[in-house]
Every structure is written in C-alpha cells, then in structure tokens.
Amino acid sequence: MNTEILSTHTKELFQLAVQRAAQLLRAGELVALPTETVYGLAANALDEGAVAKIFQVKGRPSHNPIIVHVASGEMARSCAAEWPEVAEQFARSFWPGPMTLVLPRAKKIPNIVTAGGETAGIRWPSHPFMQAVIRECGFPLAAPSANLSNQISPTNAGHVHSQLRGKIPLIVDGGQSQVGIESTVVDLAARPPRILRPGMIHEESIVAVAGKIQSPAGAGTATTLRSPGLLKKHYSPKARLMIACWRDDADLAAQIKNWNCKIEHVQIVAHTKIPVGLGAANVSVIPHDAEAFARALYAELHRCDAAGAQLIVVETLPDRPEWTGIADRLKRAAA
Ligand code: TXA
Ligand code: MG
Predict the structure, then answer these.
(1) pLDDT recorded at residue 314
(2) Are residues 65 and 150 in the same domain?
(3) Is the CB of 130 under 6 A from ligand 1?
(4) Is the full-model pTM beyond 0.85?
(5) pLDDT at 331 over 90
(6) Does residue 49 share a domain with residue 133?
(7) Which ligand is nearest to the CA of 119?
C-alpha cells in the first residue's frame, strides 16, 4: 500500500487534509493523525471492521482497549452510559487536553473498542487538526498511539512513517506533538477515582478536582488487566535503557563499564549533570523543565534507536509531581 503524507501548515493544506482524512475514515480506513500528546492511529470508533484494522496493523493484543476521541461535550456524553457529576468536573477542568476519562460505555461503542469490557476511555484532544477531523466526520475516532505494539509512541509524522509506512493509506503531518507523552488515564467508574496511567496532568491537579483519589496500584495487581498500558514493560526503545545518577564523569564511566557496554555505543540523555569528554556516541541535553523534557523525550529515544545505540543512559529525574508521568514512561522503557 502506498502511504500518502499530507501537510497542514497553510489554511488550504489544512482543509484539504481534513477532507482527505475524513473521506478515508468514512470508508472504514485507518489514518495517522496528530494530537497534542502523541500521534494517533485513528479509525471510526463505531465501525467494528475499521477498528479491527488498528489491532492488525499495530500487532496489538485484543485485550487492550482503545481510547475514543471526541470533539465536544455532547459527543463525549454520547459515548458513555452514565455521566456522573465527577465526569462533568473533570471535563470542565481538563478538556480539551491530555486527559482520558474511563466511564461506563454507551451501547453504541463496539466490544472491540473496549476489549470486551464495560467501560470506555474517552478523550477530547486539543490539537486543532484532530478536532477538525472529528467534527468533519461527525463520529468519534478510536485511536491508540500510532506505533507498532510495544514500541515508543510517535511525536512527529516522521516517527509514524518509519513504523507504519506501507501499512496505512495516510499520515497527516501536524508538526511536533506539544505534550510529548500519552494522556493521563483516570478511572471514573471507580469510586473514588483512580489514576490508571500518569501523565502531564498530574496527581495534584487531579486531587484538586476530584477531592479524594485511590492510591495507584502497582503492576501485578488487578489494575494491570484493567489498563494494559500499566504493564511493567511497555513503550520501549530497541536499545537497553538505564536510568542513572552520577557525581561526575568518572563515576558515570565506571557505571557504564559495569553494564558491559563500550562507551562508543552509548547515548546519554542528561538534564543537569552534562558529561563532557567521555567518548559516548552522543550526549543530548534536554531542558530541566518537565514540560520541555516530556516534549523532547520520545524524539530523543527514537533518535538513539535510529543511531543504532546499544545502551541509552538517562539521568535520573527530579522526584516532584510534574515529573511523575515522565518517570513512569522511563521506568517502563527501562524494564
Ligand atoms: O494520549 C493518548 O492517550 C494517545 C493519543 C493518540 O490520544 N493514545 C494512546 O493510546 O496513548 P494507547 O492505546 O497507546 O494507550 C491507551 C491506554 C492503554 O493503556 C489502555 O489500556 C488504556 O489507555 N485504556 C483505554 N481504554 C480503557 C478502558 N476502557 N479502561 C481502562 N484502560 C483503558
Ligand atoms: Mg500506545
């Protein structure tokens, strides 16, 4: 299959791409679309056959449910069987944006989307292109991240192209994803609500809206089955990834030697203690700011893989609420 790539950087190109994407989606095809978190691989959420193609193309296990994307409060409510006051509060506080709400599903949401479960994950993304396509279609879009199963999510059209070219008819280039890691997933079917997947909307903001929340359960509990994105190993680069803390260059060199990797095959991602003159393949400096770090992280990991790294060493992150979503992804990538 020939994969078309459409740009969106002028008003005319944007409109053309919206029309083309909507045309394919109406015909039951898959389209890779930009969102503010990561790129999504979208299908008509109400078309079982179209959603089945997502599982096929990604190699995604059928027990992993897919998030339903909407472009209005009304569309969100139409995907849920119940809309409790807490959902209204979350929607008002965090939508459109990087927040997925798990609620009892409406009957119209097919089994394949919810992986047979009685809940649906619903998100109203803020990316203007994604919103325009959903409005043009008039139906919600089921969309997981647009990567092959277990690989790193794409944050630009090039990342999608390198994993999915030849497998889907269209990739829409909407620029670099502004958030950079996947949405926060909160289970509102649980009382009190529970964070199933941390993200850039962090616990303190959620507690401010929800009042009480359940403490997140670790991997290996019932939660893992409720949200397979919580499986211990997930979102991995091809190279081995280590999270490390070092006093100085010599300390880091000693640790790398212990991991039995030649320094010239090592890529280092640092934000405070920047090693100089170690002889590593590359040292990247990502800003010491959670939002900027999240935006840059996946592109860095994609770049390290493309460069053929054997080992990626990432400097330990600060232990503060705004870093928890990023720390979660790094921990899984290192598992
Ligand atoms: O930011 C995002 O959420 C991106 C963009 C494209 O919207 N999407 C994304 O989708 O990350 P995916 O499929 O890669 O991850 C969705 C996560 C998975 O961990 C899945 O198990 C969980 O959300 N999930 C989806 N529906 C659920 C449900 N009904 N109950 C519990 N977890 C659910
Ligand atoms: Mg994913």
Answers:
(1) 97
(2) yes
(3) no
(4) yes
(5) yes
(6) yes
(7) 1
